[in-house]
Amino acid sequence: MRFLNAGESHGKALVSIIEGLPSNLKIDTQFINYMLELRQGGYGRGGRMKIEKDKIDIFSGVRGGYTTGAPVSFLIWNNDWENWQKIMSTGEDADLESKKVTRARPGHADYAGALKYQQKDIRNVLERASARETASKVAIGSIAMSFLKEFGIQVSFCVTNIGGAQCPEKVLEISDTIFENPLYCPCEKTTKDMIHLIDKAKEEGESLGGIVQVIVKGLPPGVGSYVNYDRKLDSKIAGSLMGVQAIKGVEIGMGFEAGINPGSKVHDEIFFDKKKGVFHGSNNAGGIEGGMSNGEDIIVKAVMKPIPTLYNPLQSIDIYSGEAYEAAIERSDICAVPAAAVVAGSVVAWEIANSFMEKFAGDSMEEIKNSFENWQGIIKSFTGGSHE
């Protein structure tokens, strides 16, 4: 499966095309819109979230609520387009001066993007580099989640750290009620600390980053492959997460702690029980060994840096003159870590679904389910069964 998306932050709409979805998959637009709403939520968001009410508008590849096997295309309209039509017009009549940006923001794509694409107006860079693009990824990932649910595979996500306020215990379960929390955090005490830090950052013209976690339950062993780097499940997940705006690091399982512990404290012992089958005594590998799922929960963390737009701006330059100025200010959030959790869950779901399709390939849901059920039987008979 593959997808492409296009669109600018203040353009008419975000456009997406998904190719390779099997036929007869139910498309739950209510769930997709719910996920889009979650992406816009969370304490610390800015004024743009009050303007946009994201909803998916499907154009092709779905009939009667089910996929047909053809490419699925959809739009997410930008309500703010009404205020930006003249500025963002694709025609020669566009107003290229009133919202022109020449002062690069440290930490954003502004300077490198303007240089790479030879743009004298940084707006042509920031419009596409904006995290507004992640709305498309959430919609696409929501479809992937619906696909995985058909096979008993559940994807959940949460926030574990904002600005240094860290959940005290490892998060191994994420409740369905997580979104009742204003920061999608499983620890109420930590949430209070996070809110205090966000309020303080707002007063100081600062922004905050944090850490998000994704857990995938129910994925059978054998998804992914060790034979080449681009088929490794962990490689795909890490690459996809690093493709999300502001993500600067990814951990799978124990992650960086594996470098400071001896092997006996890192590797997960393997056991067999006739009722349970094969299982591991721990899950430091985060459910992936050798680029393949091993039957345990997939546990992934990603770190989001603070948003580059500061209301107390850092020093920068004007790309025209080279003169020193304070960086430009675009309307922005103080903290968007909860949104990053939703996006992270979505892109992980997409990569899991994609590798799942490679393993259990088929043109229809019926065909894939037959392949999946056959694999379940193979798993049960492989250990403790006959190999003759």
Please tell me about this protein's structure:
By secondary structure, this protein is an alpha+beta fold. The protein has one domain: Chorismate synthase, AroC fold (4-Layer Sandwich), CATH 3.60.150.10. It has eleven helices and 17 strands. The strands form six sheets. The chain has a five-stranded antiparallel sheet. Strands 1-2-6-3 form a four-stranded antiparallel sheet, covered by helices on one side. It has a two-stranded antiparallel sheet with strand order 4-5. Strand 1 and strand 2 form a beta hairpin. Helix 1 packs across helix 6, helix 6 crosses helix 10 and helix 8 runs antiparallel to helix 10. The protein is globular and about 70 Å long.
Total DSSP E strands: 17
Question: What do we call the CATH topology?
Answer: Chorismate synthase, AroC fold
- Reading the helices and strands in chain order gives EEHHEEEEHHHHEEHEHEHEEEEEEEHH
What can be said about the biggest beta sheet? 5 strands, antiparallel
**What separation lies between the terminal Cα atoms?**
36 Å
Strand order of the largest sheet: 8-7-9-15-10
* Helical content class: 25-40%
Round the Cα radius of gyration to an integer and report it: 22 Å
Number of helices: 11
* Apparent shape: globular
Residue fraction in strands: 15-25%
Query: What structural class do you assign from the helix and strand content?
Result: alpha+beta
> In the residues, how many domains can be counted?
1
